[in-house]
Amino acid sequence: MFEFDTIAAISTPPGEGAIAIVRLSGEEAISIANRVFHSPGEKNLLEVPSHTIHYGHLQEVESGEVVEEVMLSVMKGPKTFTREDVVEINCHGGIVTVSRVLQLILRNGARMAEPGEFTKRAFLNGRIDLSQAEAVMDLIRAKTDRAMNVALSQMDGKLSRLIGDLRQALVEVLAQVEVNIDYPEYDDVEEMTIPLMLEKSNWVKSEIEKLLQTSSQGKILREGLSTVILGRPNVGKSSLLNSLVQENKAIVTDVAGTTRDIIEEYVNVRGVPLRLVDTAGIRETEDIVERIGVERSRQVLKEADLILFVVNFNQALTEEDLRLFETVKEMNYIVVVNKTDLDQQIDLNEVHQLAKGHRVITTSILQEEGIDALEDAIAAMFFEGTIDAGDATYVSNTRHIALLHQALERISDAINAAEADVPVDMIQIDVTRTWEILGEIVGDTMQDSLLNQLFSQFCLGK
Ligand code: GDP
Ligand code: ZN
Predict the structure, then answer these.
(1) How many percent of the chain have pLDDT more than 90?
(2) What is the ipTM of this complex?
(3) Mutation choice for ligand 1 from 234, 320, 336, CB with most ligand atoms inside 8 A
(4) Are residues 256 and 222 in the same domain?
(5) 14: domain CATH number?
(6) 306-312 and 333-338: which strand pairing?
């Protein structure tokens, strides 16, 4: 186990809460707390059993001035999150009180934790592996229940276990290679070892491919489905956006709502996080194409995971509608035929024909009709009943995805080489590299600087 100084931070989210927690971790955690803590019976925290909670007051050491009434938990390592001694101080909420408590702790020997430092210690002390540490980060940022489940099962070590199995198989391949190198003169050794190597390598390859298949869903769960509302002016695009935002609890995000001319609203539709992409002014003025120019809007559309394509029930399809059908034809889209409270002028058969099997939903946003059906359609489209965050291993982390792609390339090279009768020591290089790359996912072959960069992305106090 590593030796570290004692760190402290407020570990509850910023803002006013009923309680807030100041967390300390490190060798001195308990003695620092003991210096400022006074219970009715003047308990000595250094002598209390581990994992116990104590009521009392925090006081200034010199003046004895009472700073705060607290409940204080003492947890001795290694059965703690960081594996170090941990003290958690529950105090009344409110920024002022909490920071007074933190200041008191810092004045008495603890150091302010860097962002992610608690999790980093958990990792360095072997409590969790890197993919689990990243899952903690995802958990903090999780935008919906489903995303939360993915993060939780990753933290559970599901991904780590699978990666471990893959690396074990690669070690077995390498063992076969060794046999081959050691007995090059025997032809039948090669005949026996190559098929075994191929079998195991192909298994590793197919497992990596399976993981990568989950990655688009994983990314969606984490970052929200990028959803563009498209349609010509006045069909009800802004009304649809507002209704989706109002009906569904908007998701709180740390991403600023407005970045120059793009507005993003996060909403949770039936467990699917949507990032509704709009352009500033789209509400007041015209459609997306006109507003941000053909090039930009093409780009926005191309990056969209889902298009909500709105047409008007009260008008026959126009040239522009037909052009938009052409624009979206390669994309994931749902046709929303809006304004069903007005007279029908549109030919719905024509709409269905143009939609070529894509879902068509009729709505009257004005009268709040059809929105539920639209939400069902959105959810169905991405979860078709086949995806259950509970029992699949998902990859949603961009770094993991990039590494899996690299690993896939390397193991494919190895397989091709083995099939082409390339000397085994060449195969050995590719297999070893695959093993290393997979190791980076769980943090086994990671350099320090990369580690620091990773952990600094965490929220303070975690
Ligand atoms: P956008 O230009 O596509 O964003 O359209 P808006 O959302 O600004 O809506 C244009 C007009 O249509 C507004 O006056 C809305 O109140 C109206 N509108 C939107 N949805 C409906 C609907 O379902 N029925 C009716 N009758 N009017 C609607
Ligand atoms: Zn509008």
Answers:
(1) 35
(2) 0.98
(3) 234
(4) yes
(5) 3.30.1360.120
(6) parallel
